[in-house]
From TrEMBL:
PROSITE patterns: HTH_CROC1 (PS50943). Keywords: DNA-binding. This is XRE family transcriptional regulator. It holds the Pfam family HTH_31. It comes from Novacetimonas cocois. Signal peptide: none annotated. The keyword Chloroplast does not apply. It comes from the Bacteria. SUPFAM superfamilies: lambda repressor-like DNA-binding domains. Residues 88-142 form the HTH cro/C1-type domain. SMART domains: HTH_XRE. InterPro entries: Cro/C1-type_HTH (IPR001387), Lambda_DNA-bd_dom_sf (IPR010982).
Length: 194
């Protein structure tokens, strides 16, 4: 299922705090977007031009939301990597930890935590057991957002086999499997529905 993602004139995009940058689109060309930025010091200032891909990248990195309800998820659909990143950020904030404090507990850099929270789970797999322990949850809850429970769903035999194979993998290989499936879906032009 594909999600329609269109940059349009008059859309206003607001990035997530702490920066909370605001960009209003003035013109959309074939490969470029003309916008103006609002800063805390002044109202909207000079016009800027970037590529469509550059604007989309800013949306993803800043976790921006548009005035008409679009977001980074609208670009690519649901992503398990982004979901895990959001879960880390939510749990970290709920525990009252800064990125640096959390990084110190894990023995990693603050940059690594930032990468994870933006859906780039480089080398996160070996840290999953410690992350789960720090937050007092099971690895299964950390990865899936819920504990393993019996849920009745209509699935085909091949889907059941895939689920069984996935569950048989160690945690570090589960993330590799997710990333590979995401890559294949994007290659086919598919977006994973939420």
């Amino acid at each position: 299922m594909t999600t329609s993602f269109i940059l349009k004139v008059a859309q206003v995009w607001t990035g997530a705090p702490p920066r909370g940058e605001v960009r209003a689109i003035d013109e959309v060309r074939e490969n470029h977007v003309v916008f103006h930025k609002q800063t805390t010091r002044r109202a909207f200032v000079t016009y800027r031009t970037t590529t469509v891909m550059g604007f989309r990248k800013w949306i993803q990195q800043s976790q921006a939301v548009s005035s008409d309800g679009m977001s980074a998820a609208s670009i690519h659909g649901f992503s398990p990597s982004r979901e895990i990143g959001q879960r880390i950020q939510l749990l970290r904030r709920a525990a009252g930890l800064s990125q640096q404090a959390f990084a110190d507990l894990l023995g990693v850099s603050r940059t690594a935590v930032g990468f994870w929270e933006t859906g780039r789970p480089n080398r996160i797999s070996r840290h999953i057991p410690r992350i789960a322990r720090i937050f007092g949850i099971s690895e299964e809850v950390f990865l899936n957002g819920r504990s393993e429970e019996k849920v009745r769903a209509e699935i085909t035999k091949d889907e059941a086999s895939i689920i069984e194979l996935y569950r048989s993998l160690p945690m570090e290989h589960r993330l590799q499997a997710i990333k590979r499936m995401e890559m294949l879906a994007r290659k086919e032009g598919k977006v994973i529905a939420p």
